[in-house]
Amino acid sequence: MRAVIAEDSVLLRVGLIKVLEMGGFQVAAEAGDAEGLLAAVAEHRPELALIDVRMPPGFTDEGVRAAMEIRRRWPGTPVVLLSQYVEERYAADLLSANTSGVGYLLKQRVADVADFVAAVRRVADGGTALDPQVVAQLLLRRDSDPLARLTPREREVLGLMAEGRSNAGIAQALVVSESAVAKHINNIFAKLDLPVVDADHRRVLAVLRFLGASRD
Amino acid sequence: MTIPAGLRRTVLRAQRDTGFLAAGVLPHLALVPVWAWAATTTARTGNWLLTGSVSSALALLGTPVLTAVQRARYRVLIGVDVPRLTPTAPERWTWASTARWVAATRPWRKIGYHLLLGPLLALLELLVLAVAAACLAGVTAYAWSWALPTGIRQDWFGYLTQLPAYTAAGFLLLCALPWTGRAVARAEARLALGLLGPSRAQRLQERVDQLAVSRTDLIEAVDAERRRIERDLHDGTQQRLVSLAVNLGLAIATRPDLPSDAREVIARAHLEAKEAIAELNDLVRGLHPAVLEDRGLDAALSGLAARTPLPVRLRVDLEERVAPNVESVAYFVISEALTNATKHANAMRAEVIVRQVGEVLRVRVTDDGLGGADAAGTGLTGLAKRVGSLDGAFHVSSPVGGPTTITAELPCAR
After folding, report:
1. Which of A17, A82, A89 to substitute to test the interface with B, most B CBs within 10 Å?
2. A61 CB contacts (<8 Å, ≥6 apart)?
3. Max Cα distance, chain A (Å)
4. Contact in structure between A108 and A86 (CB atoms under 8 Å)
5. Up-side HSE of residue B90: CA atoms within 13 Å toward CB?
6. Which chain B residue's Cα is nearest to A16?
7. Distance of CA B361 to the CA centre of its chain
8. Global confidence as pTM
9. CATH number corresponding to B296-411
10. Which of A50, B46, B61, B350 is 20 to 30 A from B29 via CA?
């Protein structure tokens, strides 16, 4: 699997390359800003783009905008955004079009190498990886009355689901059986009036759509 | 031989004041010919309409020029700055607004100064100059006497008695001269400030305007500084820490063959690094979250609420983004209030409401904690100060037993 990295901190770039190589990726190119990133993606057509949200020149959301551009010009390119702080608005921008092959994680998650590699792999395979912090922010949507109808346990399940975990993953996290998880999920869909679908990212899409992440 | 510093200063000052007074004579007398001509011509021909209009026109035309001359004289020669009267031009020139604008330049006082007071001041100045000349002549009486032919000197009885008297009188006057000059110059400066400068109300108004601008500048400078620190930390320290944590994580993941005690040390370091990152993140966010600048209050608050360890209901109704310094203060107030609710009040839940009503941003944070918050405590005083820096209103209601409500109203006219 070929990957492209965009990160302005040289120090961190070295670490990211090592982590990705450990996860079985080959880093085809590295860039320090959005322009270099787009050029690298155009040249290498990678199976993964790992992008820092804040990059030169403006150090605001260049990475998000570059990611959107990549998704627009080369649809289906898996993209993982890394950020010092996770803001659900950036995630919303990214997820509004299509949630397959999208990841948005805190930078410090890279330090938990095994988990991070697993999350990146999930995205490269067309799945979703959202940081728990984003999910927490998404769940905080104001005036989301239907959410109030969920039990605390169901909220937990919804949160894990929004992170992009499978039923098995959720069961593992909550230390319950998979059938219990399936029951919770069915309840959630029923309470939220969502069509029951089975693919992981579809579930995330449903969750995010409901949570109003795809506004504007 | 060196001249004592005090004496040198006195001499220089006397020289300066005398020069200043001398420079005042002509401009102070400038309008005398005008009204003298008007008076004599009217007496001769009785045509007061012509002379009146001509002399009035000359006085009106001369006033701005003479005022400028006098201001230069005060500023250059004795360092007194008579402020220029420049009222802000009205948006629409109607009769009323024009009249108000003209009145704000205080024309009658200026005309009075140049027309009536000027000649009196000129007389005073000439008097001081005459005294100066007399005392110089007196002090140097002996020098003059030597210039006289020997015959006259021998026949002059006063040579032994009058000359010392002239010299002594000259010395006395010479000693009094610096103070006289000083007093007259000061009196003139005071009159000029009163008649040519702005009134007290105008001066205060101007000062208030200046202070308002400088305060805004200061607040913006502080905000910019916070943003700079945030960026420096983000681009430097935080990246280094993350990189450190990543490398430690790599060490754990790639070297399972290490002895267990070494692995344990690395694992602990790894954990510490991650905790340090989390701590630093919270600290830097409290400083100035980048998303606030980038996406505004609503986005920044959802992040804040999500990180607060208790359930927060958040309602933000904003028609458009408010000014950055208002956003920053609102964010700071809410951040601090939620921290208090978590740390001190043992609250179970909190509610944040941000609404824009006309030109006021209303911020309200309520928690169901213990209450009894001390409005005079350091944290809340700090909040009140920051709100006050924008002319906002800040209110804390915290009865013992709760609930605690903190409200801030921030003016946000754009």
Report:
1. A89
2. A53, A54, A90, A93, B294, B295
3. 50
4. no
5. 13
6. B246
7. 28
8. 0.66
9. 3.30.565.10
10. B46
